[in-house]
Amino acid sequence: MNRVRSFGARANGLTDDSNAFLAAWRTACDSAGVVTFLIPKGTYLVGPVKFSGPCKNVSSLTVKMKGYLKASTNLSKYGSGAGWIEFRWMEGLTLTGGGTFDGRGSEAWPFNNCRDDYNCKLLPTNLKFVALNNTVVQHITSLNSKFFHLALVQCKGFIGSKLKISAPENSPNTDGIHIDRSSNVHFSLSHIQTGDDCISIGQGNSEVTISSINCGPGHGISVGSLGRYRNEGDVSGLVVKNCSLTGTANGIRIKTWPNSPGSSSATNMTFENITMNNVSNPIIIDQSYCPFGFCSFKAPSLVKLSDIYFKNIRGTSSSKVAVALECSKGFPCQNVNLENVHLDLSSGENHPSSTCKYVRARYIGTQIPPPCA
Q1: Secondary structure letter of residue 233 according to DSSP
Q2: Could you give the maximum distance between any two Cα atoms of the chain, in Å?
Q3: CATH of span 49-368
Q4: Residue 295: predicted pLDDT
């Protein structure tokens, strides 16, 4: 058992305990067999901290995080796009214990200019997982991240469950979970309240399953945005099921940029058994996505969308257009299917409506709103 207190962590919430954490990690990583890294109850000021492998002789490493970690608010300590707490290049990591990672984002959010600057400096992510294999993350809380709460990059075999993710509705770019270039990922049984996408599926992902997520407030569950950069990887094998969204700015959203610098595809995606409670844009495909006021729309999106299934989507829409399928003129959507969609207006007025561009969807069973003419 490697305890951070044994390596000099003060746990008073005022003294920087980063060096004690790193010393405890090095000892744990240099051990052999089944290893536990313990962060006992207490308040720790840390960061940024990179927990790196490979831990060559360790068969499994469990981080029992029972404490309350407070992030440094000194932004000069962090690199652009870095993580506050990073786990890198490891096999068989488990992170659990019921503890809290408090990013103290309210002091950093005023410095976020990514909605105005295309090339903005990215603030740090609370928890970043880089090039990990066979990872389990459960029973932890991420609070008030400066940027994304959890980010996966090039991970294989990742299970996340029973997570609590929370930031104010107006906190910028605080995506709950962002997944990038990863495979065989499963997130479930979690509550996400944040200021951006509850979950965002980026480029290069395959075999991702999202189930039993309660989302809201936030911007919904999104694929993308895709098609912004050159040489993006394809997305395939996504399943989102048994989720509930409440008061979100979007429901299920697929978003791709116009004027793409290269082509890619997103295919074989199923969204099933989703409950919408007073959600704006419950079902939306937007292939002209641009959060800025200065995008070029001269060329259409080059992201090819195909084999998309919306099944058993029900609840209420706060926007008149409850189903918007707005695809690319360059690559019209192929094989889009809606089965048993029942979305009433939250206001109790008459039925909502649908819009479609560059798509011929296939409809089965109940369709409220009615299909596009």
Answers
A1: P
A2: 69
A3: 2.160.20.10
A4: 75
